[in-house]
Specification:
The chain is α+β, with helices and mostly antiparallel strands and about 475 residues long. It has 16 helices and 21 strands. Helix 8 runs parallel beside helix 9. Helix content is about 40%, strand content about 20%. The protein has 4 domains: about 35 residues, no CATH class; about 80 residues, Pdz3 Domain, CATH 2.30.42.10; about 200 residues, 2-enoyl-CoA Hydratase, Chain A, domain 1; about 100 residues, no CATH class.
């Protein structure tokens, strides 16, 4: 045998049987635990050593989303999956130390108890809201929906503090919460989440706006965290041709799956613009990526979150559980929706394909995780005066007082004399901006005041229509569609 061949033979150990190697590795872990249990200065608690140490440590070498649940956590997870969304049915404006009711939806606990737009909530279950920071307020409002709540309320024009008792009930929060015309034959639909009925609801909303007669549609997916993937498929099928690829699923041990538009789909043909931001994730990215890759929609806004995981939850012995990432979602052009999982020993190239990607028309689109917009547009930054007016709640307070003495119609608009009244109100509340600042921000103040007055009188949805008229991203979408 040649000398170099002999060296190679010595350097290459025989292949170990995988089962034997696993047994040896597990024995090492047991040996370490045994020595620590016998010799460590402090007692070793087995549950803590394995549930909080060894098992989570192993999963951290995979990705940040694979999680082990000890028996208590797994039971809590199962209860959360069974739980139903309860609340009081009120829409509020949350400011530091202040919570003002904007709308009490019909038939909900808030409306039944007698809460009305303009009411200021002073205390909840004995907690004085004026003493709480913004984050504490949000936590308190979230926690209070789980049980009966005692509210102390100040109503404009009433010196007496009112007390309300609200019991949480199931509240219907549709996944599509806004649908209206931005301009003649230009529709707007905001999808807040993807749930089982979202696809059907989207078609109903589009038909109500004009259906095939629309000249364009803006789909707002900003802050949409995702939800049911099937709902994203059904929504995409409203715009893509039958049998077009919507997304694919690929994993190390999972068979590659291609998900396509049903052959009997009847898609709309009008142009579409989709709005996304850094909080658009999961199913939102599946819809955006599919319409972008097939040149069916223009994507505007900021890069999306980048969450394209397929996870399975496994029940383990001892009433514990495991949520494990088993595959990833990819757009029709092959882009990974999941951002690189630079975690532990994971090689990000294993899940994020390298190279260039192109749409059906040959346009190059960026990969690397998430959806990159065709046109990057950041939200407009508020001026110093605008931030002060928003943070202080001054415009909401003025709108509340104004409606105590004035009746308005749906065609209400803010006239110059009303802006003068607002300036007097602000001065009385120690907000005295320079005339130049007020004139510079006059258009924003006028729109913001109109929004608050209409929200308090006719509901938040009416006010949102006004807000969209000053939304930089929405206005850019309208121009693209035209």
């Amino acid at each position: 045998m040649p000398f170099f061949a002999f060296l190679l033979f010595l350097a290459a150990p025989p292949q170990d049987d995988a089962a034997d190697q696993l047994a040896r590795d597990l024995k090492k872990m047991i040996d370490v635990f045994s020595i620590a249990d016998r010799e460590a200065a402090d007692p070793v608690i087995p549950d803590a050593a394995f549930y909080q140490g060894a098992i989570p440590g192993m999963l951290k070498t995979l990705d940040p989303h694979s999680i082990f649940f000890d028996p208590g956590q797994f039971e809590q997870l199962k209860q959360m999956q069974k739980s139903e969304s309860k609340g009081f049915g009120s829409i509020v404006s949350v400011l530091p130390g202040r919570v003002i009711v904007l709308q009490a939806m019909d038939g909900t606990p808030s409306a039944k108890a007698g809460l009305t737009a303009g009411d200021e909530i002073l205390a909840i279950n004995g907690y004085d809201l004026a003493r709480l920071e913004f984050e504490q307020l949000v936590q308190l409002l979230t926690a209070s929906r789980q049980r009966e709540a005692q509210l102390y309320v100040r109503r404009p024009g009433n010196a007496r503090i009112l007390r309300f008792t609200l019991k949480p009930e199931l509240v219907d929060t549709p996944s599509i919460d806004r649908a209206f015309l931005l301009a003649p034959q230009i529709g707007y639909v905001r999808i807040a989440s993807f749930e089982e009925p979202t696809g059907k609801l989207a078609r109903e909303k589009i038909e109500a706006l004009g259906g095939e007669n629309l000249k364009g549609l803006v789909i707002d997916l900003r802050n949409n965290p995702g939800g049911a993937v099937q709902a994203a498929l059904e929504t995409a099928s409203l715009f893509l041709n039958p049998d077009q690829l919507v997304f694919s699923v690929k994993g190390r041990n999972a068979k590659t799956e291609e998900v396509r538009v049903p052959k009997l789909a009847r898609p709309y043909k009008f142009p579409v613009a989709i709005l996304i931001n850094g909080k658009s994730a999961s199913a939102s990215e599946i819809l955006s990526g599919a319409l972008q890759d097939h040149d069916r929609a223009t994507i505007l806004g900021e890069p999306s979150y980048g969450k394209g995981l397929v996870q399975r939850v496994y029940s383990l012995s001892g009433n514990s559980g495991l949520a494990l990432t088993t595959a990833f979602y990819y757009t029709p052009s092959g882009r990974s929706i999941q951002k690189p999982l630079a975690f532990g020993q994971l090689d990000s190239t294993a899940i994020v394909p390298q190279g260039s990607f192109h749409t059906d028309a040959g346009r190059e689109v960026r990969g690397g995780g998430g959806i990159q917009p065709d046109e990057a547009i950041a939200p407009a930054e508020l001026s110093r005066l605008e931030m002060v007016l928003d943070a202080s709640g001054s415009i909401t307070s003025f709108a509340t007082e104004y409606l105590q003495t004035h009746e308005i119609g749906a065609d209400f608009d803010v006239i110059p004399e009303l802006l003068d009244e607002l300036r007097v109100f602000l001065s009385a509340h120690r907000i005295q901006p320079p005339v130049s600042d007020f004139l510079r921000d006059r258009s924003w103040i006028q729109s913001r005041l109109k929004q608050e007055i209409l929200s308090l009188k006719f509901g938040v949805a009416k006010g949102d229509e006004v807000e969209m008229q000053r939304d930089v991203l929405v206005q850019s979408a309208i121009e693209k569609l035209r």
